[in-house]
Amino acid sequence: MTGTPATFRIVTSAADISAAEWNACAGDNNPFTLHAFIRALEESGSAVAAAGWQAAHAVLEDADGGVLGIAPAYAKSHSQGEYVFDHGWADAFERAGGRYYPKYQMAVPFTPATGPRLLLKDAAFAPALIAGIEQFCARQQISSAHATFIAPEQVPLFDAAGWLIRHTEQFHWHNAGYGSFEDFLGNLASRKRKTIRRERREAAESGLRIVALSGADIREAHWDAFWEFYQDTGSRKWGHPYLTRAFFSLIGERMAERVLLVLAMDGDTPVAGALNFIGGDCLYGRYWGRCATCHSCTSSSATIRPSTTRSRTASPGSRLARRDRTSWHGATCLW
């Protein structure tokens, strides 16, 4: 650290820190670490104690109370909604006579996207923030602390603190210099290329139109429709969707300029959609779905469309891309 006197505390709601102080640490590149996103998860009832996500954000402050760093984190009573499966760890811990839950989880709830887990005004504050988390967990007799989907540049910060570093993989899309969607399709295997073209042709022949909405163009009626799509996909794929209806209204109210909502319209009625978030250098595809009576190709077309629609704030690199196997990292500290 730089010699600046610092104090550590835990806050049980993102609302306990002003948006200005939070975002001064988070920056504006990653939409999921913004104050508006985290607060929407909590205020909507999506990430709350009753759902197994008790907010326990770590905060490092200077002598005047100014925020130097934040670690968005939760005391978890289960391992759901993390997209990292540590049930084997939990079982082994319990068999050895320990109590695995609650555990301390440094993550953005329900968001398997790589990003900073330490929101810092200066990287020099990382050791003090990590040490504060370790001391808090030890005092509270919490079994372990975990940071998942860590941005690569922050992995050394946890490594230097002696945390166990985990390595695994996910797929990211990177621009390969495609000048058009046809260029992109040309790089695919013949079977996949034919499938996408057929789905897009069938959607076009159905008379549907695709609209891309952002900012003030997104209305509550659009969120009502997308909520139904999200529920349909969640019930078929996950069994229990994590987000509440209120969450979508809150992000529409507080950060709509970072949202790209793509809808397939049958006349004036949305029948399928894909929700995307606009980052500083990429577009994050999050959720998709369709009405129960709609053909699956309609949902596929709405999902594909963002790759051919350049957001006004996304870089050209987010338009068309190549799927690459990419490592992501986690870090764990056990007591």
From TrEMBL:
Matching PANTHER family: ACYL-COA (PTHR47017:SF1)
Name of the protein in its database record: Uncharacterized protein
Any matching Pfam family: FemAB_like
Region (Disordered): 305-326
Domain of life (superkingdom): Bacteria
Ranges of compositional bias, category Polar residues: 305-316
InterPro entries from the UniProt entry: Acyl_CoA_acyltransferase, FemAB-like
